[in-house]
Specification:
The mean pLDDT is 94. The strands form 2 sheets. Strands 4, 5, 6, 7, 8, 9, 10, 11 and 12 form a 9-stranded mixed beta sheet that branches. This protein has a 3-stranded mixed beta sheet with strand order 1-2-3, covered by helices on one side. Strand 8 and strand 9 form a beta hairpin. It folds into 2 domains: 75 residues, no CATH class; 154 residues, 3-Layer(aba) Sandwich (Rossmann fold), CATH 3.40.50. The chain is globular and about 50 Å long. By secondary structure, the chain is of the alpha+beta class. The longest helix is centred in the first third of the chain and has 17 residues.
């Protein structure tokens, strides 16, 4: 079956139904031609096991398929970035931090505070498509434990590094200040050439969007503080 992610048409050939069901909201338009085909081996599926718990092969296959998609996506100036992305008033916001910091909780507060103005693009593993006209954050069905995503893409305007703090505050950041953290949230392929392409795409992303460092105490007020800080002076 053909699916569409981040302007790429992908022919996915899974052996289990799980991936087809997962991606059913991302079917490519009729008549589309595949940019590439993805099928994975038993060895690739086995490598997705984390060794701490037993996971169904069908689920592991879906992870292996997404890994292959992300590898191929580099040829289309697209890469995987770990974060919670939302759209508000036509603009994309991306909040990133190590797992367990509270990205999803923070973006949930945006939905609570701002209501229907907010739409989740992807709550865990969005794709970033880098173009000469800017960066687009793209939905995929690989969207975290809360299963929040939208089959759409929007211009990415703001990227926030989130950190726990006793008080809510936000400051503008430079790429140099937050680069190590940003690299840590980027999918890093093993091949040297692919890693070089990933670093180049990350550099272009950080140069194209507004960067912030956000400290928050995981209260609804944090969403208000973040929004005011981002748009101060607009």
């Amino acid at each position: 079956m053909l699916y569409r992610f981040a302007s790429m048409t992908v022919d996915i050939c899974p052996r289990y139904r799980y991936t087809a069901e997962l991606c059913e909201g991302y079917l490519a338009p009729e008549g589309a031609a595949a940019d590439f085909t993805v099928r994975v081996t038993d060895e690739e599926i086995a490598r997705e096991a984390d060794g701490t718990r037993e996971l169904p092969p069908a689920y592991l296959e879906s992870l292996a398929i997404y890994r292959r998609i992300c590898h191929e996506a580099l040829r289309f100036d697209t890469f995987l970035f770990h974060g919670s992305a939302l759209e508000m008033d036509g603009e994309g916001y991306l909040f990133t931090a190590p797992s367990g910091t509270g990205k999803s909780t923070h973006t949930r507060y945006w939905r609570e505070v701002f209501g229907e103005r907010v739409r989740v693009i992807n709550d865990d593993k969005p794709l970033l498509r880098v173009t000469d006209g800017g960066v687009f954050v793209c939905g995929t069905p690989w969207d975290g434990k809360h299963r929040l995503s939208t089959n759409s893409e929007v211009p990415l305007k703001y990227l926030c590094l989130l950190e726990r703090g006793e008080e809510n505050r936000i400051t503008p950041a430079t790429a140099g200040e937050i680069y190590p953290a940003m690299l840590g949230q980027t999918y890093r392929p093993a091949a040297t050439a692919d890693m070089g392409k990933t670093l180049a795409l990350l550099d272009r992303t950080l140069a194209a969007v507004k960067l912030y460092h956000l400290w928050c105490n995981l209260s609804p007020e944090a969403a208000k503080v973040a929004y005011r800080g981002i748009h101060e002076g607009d």
